[in-house]
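This is your field. Please look over both lines of this record.
***
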Amino acid sequence: MKKFIACAAILVGITVIKAAFYLESNQPAEKEIIFKDYDFYPLTGLVTEAKGELITVICQNGNEFQFRDSREDWVKDDICSMIMMDCGTKNVNDDMVIKARYSGYVSLDEADSWVK
């Protein structure tokens, strides 16, 4: 049991360190990162454009986000589930996509009614 707890503690520590390095490497240099001030939330959107690694997603409420993904299998009308970070502000426009995953697609008929 002690070995299991030690292994779990090591895995949690590694995950926290990786998250801190990820956030630090993806932020402008002038903004200091204080991890505890950020909130994370799930969000789903529809891919409206995929130009190489730059993916543009629009959400049901009309908010649009972009992220980079080296996989080249994103296409227009794919459904994208994301983990978002609020950057410590109430302004949704500066939120960042932390993780994105393919969640299916919509037909041409459904795509037109996606954004309300």
Q: What stands out?
A: The chain has a mean pLDDT of 79. The helical segments are 2-25, 108-111. The radius of gyration is 17 Å.
